[in-house]
Amino acid sequence: MIDFGFGLSRSSAVRLDEVDLSLYRKLEALEPGVRTCMACGSCTSTCTAGPWSGMSVRKVILNLQRGKNVSDMLQACMLCGKCTMVCPRGINTRHLILSLCRIYDEKK
Amino acid sequence: MIYQGKQKIWSDYQKEIPSDRWFYVRSCIRQSFFPASEKYFLHICRDLLGKDIYETEHHTTCGGIAYHCDTIPQETAMTIVARQFALMTEAGYKNLVTSCITSFGNYTEILETWREFPELEARIRENLWKATRREFEKPEYVAHASDLVYKFRNEIAERAKYRLVDAQTGKALRIVEHIGCHYSKMFPHKGIGGAEYPCVLSGMVDSWGGEVVDYPERRHCCGFGFRQYLVKANRSYSVSNTHKKFESMEPYRPDAIITNCPGCPYFLDRWQYVIAEQTGKTYGEGGFGIPVFTYEEFAGLMLGIDPWDLGLQIHQVAVEPFLDKIGIEYDPKAKYLGLNKEEILRPGLPQRLKCF
Amino acid sequence: MDSRNILIIGGGVAGMEAAKQLYRLGYRPVIVEQSDHLGGHVAGWFKLFPDMLSASDLISQMEEGLDGVDVYLKTRVASMNRLKDGFSVVLSNGTGLLCQAVLIASGFNLFDASRKEEYGYGVYDHVITNADLEQWFRTGADPRVPEEPSTIAFVHCVGSRDLKAGNPQCSKVCCMTAIKQAIEMKEKFPQAEVWCFYMDLRLFGKKYEDFYINAQRDYGVHFVRGRVSEVSEDIDGKVMLKAEDTLAGTQVKLKTDLLVLMAGMLCNEDTSSLAAMVRASVDSDGFLRSRDNIYRINESSRPGVFFAGACTGTKTVPETVAEARAAALDIHNYLSGND
Prior knowledge:
The structure holds three protein chains of three kinds.
Chain A: E1 14-15, H1 22-30, H2 42-46, H3 50-53, H4 57-65, H5 71-76, H6 82-86, H7 93-107
Helix pairs in contact in A: 1-7
Chain B: H1 3-12, E1 22-25, H2 30-33, H3 37-48, E2 53-54, H4 64-68, H5 74-91, E3 95-98, H6 101-116, H7 118-132, E4 141-144, H8 145-151, H9 153-159, E5 174-178, H10 181-184, H11 200-207, E6 211-213, H12 227-230, H13 235-249, E7 256-259, H14 263-279, E8 292-294, H15 295-302, H16 320-326
Parallel strand pairs in B: 1-2, 1-3, 3-4, 5-6, 5-7, 7-8
Helix pairs in contact in B: 3-15, 5-7, 6-7, 8-11
Chain C: E1 5-9, H1 13-24, E2 28-32, E3 47-48, E4 53-54, H2 55-64, E5 70-72, E6 77-83, E7 86-91, E8 96-99, E9 101-104, E10 108-110, E11 127-129, H3 130-139, E12 151-158, H4 174-188, E13 193-198, H5 208-217, E14 222-225, E15 230-233, E16 239-245, E17 250-256, E18 258-263, E19 265-267, H6 271-278, E20 305-307, H7 317-335
Parallel strand pairs in C: 1-2, 1-9, 2-5, 9-20, 11-18, 12-13, 12-18, 13-14
Antiparallel strand pairs in C: 3-4, 6-7, 7-8, 10-19, 15-16, 16-17
Helix pairs in contact in C: 1-7, 4-5
């Protein structure tokens, strides 16, 4: 192999029909409310941990729907429950986070 | 794919192309990349079809390459272009035909800009007068040389010695057509067939016996860009875009690629070498890669011009397997003979991509 | 029976409802419809949101109210001339009429989706429009719809909110139609993954938001905020699309068995020529200009000329029906000298 000093970059484009939704499907079974998220961002704007850690329940849900790993983000959650208070769709975000932690634990 | 649907769109994007009396402007880079393409375009038009196509040695770059590299402002490019118009006016021509796609885009963009901002045109006229004491008339028609070849595609087919057909199986060869971005993406109505389903090259392929391959990334840029290649630190995404196109066309097993831009055939050709050396992957049959041609080279091959006279030895991807498929005669030993029939230097061969 | 004729241009739901009400008020409405059937676009629909009412049942029911009303099908208005107290009208079949009032209910045209060339309508094998899908719901016959699709995608705002297509306004009904159709497809093909690509979800009407929540919660329809930018056909004949997932900030691609384009509403192509005949004015959006858009939507700037339905802007079916009734009353007041 020749080193040209540059090479192929990896595309960041996501193939939606090839995304691994297994974690998301498990979460749906434990917390069906996750499906009703409409990405309003209330949870993120009110998040205690958000500004310091990048935690965002909206992003957790979206990333999971796009097959990405969200375990790092979960670590930052303080389980204060403010996001549950503000969610207009009444999603039990606290239960959502705890269920997701359990799913990741079982994976280990 | 519904062919009639494309035909319907093509009918919306037909452009008027006068059949004679053209002022030809060459490309800055094509004579080094594809040394015989422009020569054979002139040969086909003048000697075979008997057209009046004039060129002058006073013609320079149109400035498009520098403009797209952000090294000169558009007004400088405009003044350079104004000078080319002056040369055309002095020679008594009204139809401009460009060899380069970026020139075509540059001329078109400038004329459209002047149409919208006549005060800018007035300023450029003044610039040109101050700098060179020249005056000009704007062209009545601007065409890309591929527009002319498209217009004459059936005349070329009538005179053709070969067709884009596999001589063994009798099947049409599968050809990918790649259109330069500056041909019609900026001004769809200036290109034959528009920007979404251009038919300038596919029309040639159809009329010369080939089968056009339509693949998902057909609209994608070849990856050249300008700064994207010229600055080494940016080349990763130049080659990544080319890679994306090859990955997308690979399942269709194309026999060749036809292009109408100076940069595209160069990068689609050379990056196959880089991709092969970096990843070990080659496209096309037998590890040879997919050969890439200019439309003039294709026309020349169909008309029976010797492949080495057409400059095909300059290509990175070997053209011989493709010539063999069609049954085009050539002398393998003459590949690296100069015009004086003496041996010129032979290039080193790549490790991964098979070559002769 | 009052012998006064009222010309109603257009036999869609607006024209039909207005004719029925005017007939009941004792006038002689005359419907002139260019196609061969009454019911307009609604007649081509399968079920109507939010009650999932059968469109053909609605049209049959509305037709029953037209007993005694003169209906000219496959007929156009050739000319209209204002007289001292009415209009002299000539129809394309040669019939001449004297009318005391004119109601324009000429409706809308569906945006020609092939104009968005990047979506490949009419070029790719499995790209259809919202109207094609409704037709398929009704007839089951459309070779473009695969037998067992595993992926189905909807593109909102095709030719709506699109300055380049010359149509800046929101077509209003497409978001809700897409969700309705997504649910209908999910009911037919429970195993299929259904994707909606939207710029904004505009779910303003009664029960619309309920449909959205149902689509998410009960049917697992995926919503991606981002407009599909280009579509192509893959080697297996399936449709490949590109969009940005704007909430994630990444490019996404989707390979789908069926792509449904939510073609928007344009003013009827005949609107401006009709307007010219009675010297009514056309608004900047190409639709007819009402005296105002709040209180006098049914009224033109000319005496005796009234509007109902989507000829003045994009409307839902219930809005159109309500406007038709209002227009009938406006005409009644006008002819009774109650203005």
